[in-house]
Write a structure and sequence with these properties.
Elements: E1 2-9, E2 15-23, E3 26-34, E4 41-49, E5 52-62, E6 67-77, E7 96-104, E8 109-119, E9 122-131, E10 137-148, H1 149-152, H2 194-198, E11 200-212, E12 215-227, E13 230-240, E14 243-252, E15 259-270, H3 271-278, E16 287-297, H4 301-307, E17 309-316, E18 319-322, H5 323-328, H6 331-337, E19 346-359, E20 362-372, E21 375-384, E22 389-398, E23 410-415, E24 420-423, H7 425-429, H8 436-442, H9 461-466, H10 473-482, H11 489-494
Parallel strand pairs: 10-11
Antiparallel strand pairs: 1-2, 2-3, 3-4, 4-5, 5-6, 6-7, 7-8, 8-9, 9-10, 11-12, 12-13, 13-14, 14-15, 15-16, 16-17, 17-19, 18-19, 19-20, 20-21, 21-22, 22-23, 23-24
Length: 498
């Protein structure tokens, strides 16, 4: 509703205007001047609405078609969430200010030069070019000193449902809660690939500090390209926790089953830097190397996960596991995997290695080794990404027989959303018959003798073994016949399961 409006014209043409009122429940105050002529018309306009002040100054070659534009634009406000009345669900952060020089209009091309944006602590500068038409295209070259995606992408908790919207409490409508389908890690909701078929883009951005999901990435460089239904993210690299992160992704959307390729590499990244992402808290300290390579197809995250082929290699270097957390989290499981240690001490981790080959969505373990100062733990099993089921078995082998640790296999299995572990005591009990003589000789403690596994006694020999090149069967046999015991470490450890 317009409460007051004024306008005036000059003899030479052009004129000025001013108006006040309310639009969409927001006060509006606008004023400006428009010059005379049909070409390169000077304009100066100020509009205040939705808590934002917008200024446009410059010239417009053709007011009707908005061509041959040369305008300086500035928008500023106190809270980004004030704009939710007209678009989106922005977080309640601020203040914000965006300014740029807009020019162009010929051939449906518009260029934003000297682009500068600041929202709370985050900033962005650079150049953007947009071409409209049947197939829009965006080109951008941007830099930032700080880009806090945690703040920029935060949900607006204060946003209330629109008037007249019915809200239903969980379990009130539809199928009863008890009959609801189990929650999936990889949902079955169709992914929206429409934008890849409707527009093209080429974006490059360099960020000195990038914050995302609690991570703090340094000197990040990201390249994004969308072309004829193909999305490529490359390069994507940054510094994290004293190490490096590199990744690439390619998505072909026009296939009957869209095809995804993904690679991720973390080198010498301190676990403390990724704790916000993996919720490790203070359980484990050390450096992480991770190498992931996947290819899959599908129109949902679940379909893609169930079709994945590739590999996962992970290694955690020397670190510690504070005993306080051994007692607090998964106490029974960790006591069997990392037995021993004085109260208040930290269980010293020499190394952890996990390798999985992935075929048709099933990740089969080819190496799973966990070595501390007291034990070497080996594992085997598989993870079904399609059914979201894990089935892994680990067995600890103490290095010091005097610990009298029980070498009982531990099974970790169940749905991803409801993992559990169980001790396979029945397998350990198979050795009880041989304990009778020990019981006679040593009393009650003798019954533990058949359950004690001596481990390797070495600090960390298997890391060297894992790094050895793959040999032919004949050469491997010769090495086993003549080489040091370390060369056979993997076979010896995995022989637990034979």
């Amino acid at each position: 509703m317009i409460a007051n409006a004024e306008a005036g014209a000059s003899e030479a043409g052009g004129g000025n205007f001013a108006l006040e009122g309310v639009w969409n429940n927001s006060p509006i105050d606008a004023a400006g001047t428009i010059g005379a002529g049909d070409e390169d018309v000077p304009v100066s306009i100020i509009v205040e609405i939705f808590g934002a002040k917008t200024e446009l100054t410059g010239t417009v070659g053709d007011l009707d078609d908005f061509e041959e534009v040369a305008l300086h634009i500035r928008i500023e406000g106190e809270k980004l969430s004030d704009l939710n009345v007209i678009a989106g669900s922005f977080p309640a952060i601020g203040p914000y200010a965006v300014q740029a020089d807009l020019r162009g209009g010929d051939d449906d091309k518009y260029i934003l030069e000297n682009f500068k944006a600041r929202i709370a602590e985050s900033d962005l500068t650079g150049r953007l070019e947009f071409t409209s038409g049947e197939r829009p295209r965006l080109t951008a070259d941007l830099t930032s000193a700080l880009l806090d995606l945690d703040a920029l992408l935060a949900k607006n908790e204060s946003a209330a449902p629109a008037a007249g919207t019915d809200t239903v409490a969980e379990g009130e409508a539809g199928a009863p809660a008890g009959d609801a389908a189990p929650q999936r890690v990889f949902p079955d909701d169709p992914l929206d690939f429409a934008v890849l078929d409707e527009a093209d883009a080429q974006v490059s951005i360099k960020v000195s500090e990038l914050r995302y999901r609690g991570l703090s990435l340094r000197d990040a460089e990201i390249g994004l390209e969308m072309e004829q239904g193909v999305l490529r993210v490359e390069p994507l690299h940054a510094g994290l926790g004293g190490g490096d992160v590199a990744a690439r992704m390619e998505l072909q959307s026009r296939s009957a089953r869209p095809e995804l390729q993904f690679e991720l590499n973390l080198t010498d990244v301190q676990l403390s830097a990724v704790k916000p992402l993996f919720d490790l808290r203070e359980i484990l300290e050390g450096s992480l190397d991770l190498d992931i390579s996947f290819a899959g197809q599908g129109r949902t995250a679940h379909e893609i996960a169930a079709s994945l082929d590739g590999r996962i290699d992970m290694m955690i270097g020397a670190g510690t596991i504070p005993n306080a957390y051994v007692d607090l989290i998964a106490a029974d499981l960790l006591r069997f995997i990392v037995p021993g240690g004085e109260a208040g001490d930290a269980a010293r981790l020499n190394c952890f290695v996990a390798r999985f080959d992935v075929k048709d969505g099933i990740a089969t373990n080819t190496a799973l080794l966990f070595d501390t100062a007291l034990t070497t733990t080996a594992g085997k099993g598989q993870i079904d990404l399609g059914r979201e089921l894990a089935d892994l078995t680990v067995v600890p082998r103490p290095k010091d027989p005097s610990l009298l640790s029980l070498a009982i296999p531990v099974v970790i299995d169940g749905l991803f959303t409801d993992l559990s572990y169980n001790l396979k005591k029945e397998e350990a009990l198979l050795g009880l018959a041989g304990a009778v003589l020990g019981t006679v000789l040593l009393g009650p403690f003798g019954i533990l003798i058949p359950l004690v596994s001596t481990g390797t006694g070495d600090e960390n020999p298997w890391l060297t073994a894992l790094e050895q090149p793959v040999e032919s069967p004949r050469h491997a046999d010769e090495a086993r016949a003549t080489g040091p015991a370390d060369a056979d470490f993997l076979d010896n450890v995995l022989g637990i399961f034979d």
